[in-house]
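Hey there, shall we discuss this one?
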Amino acid sequence: MSFAQLGLSPDLLRAVADSGYTQPTPVQREAIPAVLAGRDLLAGAQTGTGKTAAFVLPILQRLNASSRPDGRRRVRVLVLVPTRELAMQVEESVRTYGRHRPIRSATVFGGVGFHPQVRALSAGAEIVVATPGRLLDHLGQGTVDLGGVEVLVLDEADRMLDMGFIRDIRRILARLPAERQNLMFSATFSNEIRRLADGFLDRPAQVQIAERNRPSELVEQVIHPVDRERKRELLSHLVRSRKIDQALVFTRTKHGANRLAEQLDRDGIDVAVIHGNKSQPQRTRALADFKAGRVTLLIATEVAARGLDIESLPHVVNYELPMVASDYVHRIGRTGRAGVDGIAVSLVCVDEGPLLRDIERLLGHAIPVEIVPGFEPDRSIRPQSIRLRTGQGNGRPQGRAHGRPRPAPQTHLRHASSGHGASIGRWPGGSEGPAPRSPQRPPRRNARRNFGRVRP
C-alpha cells in the first residue's frame, strides 16, 4: 500500500516523498483513514512506529478541507505530550508535512521563556503542541484560548500518566469544547489509561500495532556482566575498541548521568547529557551534536529520553538496568528501526540480578550473555539491594530504605568465550543459565550512520 492509497492530498504526498518515505507503516495504514473519516481513535503504538505522522498527516488534511469557523486564526488542534523533546519533534513533523500549507503551529513547554510562546500563540497558531503543565500556566494567564479546538491528541498517554499528569489532563479537558475529535496514542494500556479513554473517546476506532512488551526483532540484545565499580571502565573499553561506535546511554538518575559524563570526558570520550536539570537550549544542543556525530555517547535519564526518536541509532546501552521491566523495552526500542539492525547492550552488576530477572520474565526468554575478557566479575562481591533516594541518586547502588536487605536470587552464569561453557560462579539473574554467546558478532544488516532524520 502507498500513501496515495490512503487518500492523502497531492501536497501532503509531495511532503512525504520529500522526506524520503514511500510506504506507510502499519500504524499509519490503520490510523490515517480513521482520522480522515473524523472518528475518534485509540492506538497502541510505541515510539518509532511512525505514529506521529499517523495523526499529523490526516489532521493537516482535515484542517485544509474545513474552513475556519469565524474566518480567524485560532487554536484548532491541541496535541498534548509528556516532554519538551517530544513536543519539539511533533511540531517539527507538523512543519515538515505542512510545508506546502499556510498552517501555523506553536510549541508550549517549560524550561524556556514564557513571552516568546505568548507571541507565537497570539500570532494565530492553529496547531499547538504542549506539555500539560506549561499549557495550564498559559490558561491561567489567559494567553491561550482553547474554545475553538476541533481535534485533541494525547500522545504517549501512558507516559503522561506515569509522570503524574492525570489531574492536569483532566483540567485541560474541562476547558475544551464538547464537540471535537479525540485521538489517543499509548504504548501500553493500564486500567487508568482505559478509564481515561472511556471518559472522553466516543466509539473510537482501535489500532493495536506492536505486541506489548516485545522489542523489535532487529534489536540484538546482549548482557555484559561486570563489577559495579568497573562499569565505566568497561564502557570506555567498548567505545575505544569500536564495539560501540555511537550510543544512547541510560542511567537511572540525573546525578548519575552527570557523574558518568565527567568520568568519560576524563577518558577522552566525547559525551553529551540530557536530563531534567538541563536547560532547553542545553538539551537541544546535546541532541543536535549527537545527531551530527560530534559526540559519541548521549547520556540520558528515562524521563528526559522520552520523545527522542533518532533514526538509525546503532546502539543503546543500559549503563544501569531500569527499575521497571517494561522501561527496558522502551529503552532498547530506540534502536533497530527503519529496517536497520541495532544492538542493545546492558552492563549488569551483581546488584541488578532481581531487575534482570524481572526483565527476562517480561520478555519470556533469557538475554544472551557475553563476558568481556579482562572484565570478568569478582565472585566474592555480594549483591546489594538497589534504592534510589529522591533528588540525590548517584547512579550507584544504595541500601534498602526500610528493613533488612533482601537476598537476590542466584543463578549460574557461564563464560561466553569458553567453548565448554565453564562456570564462573554464582550470579543473580532472571533464569537458570542465560544463553552464552560468542563474542564474535555477525555484521549488522543495512547498518548506517545517519542520525539527522527523524522518523515520521
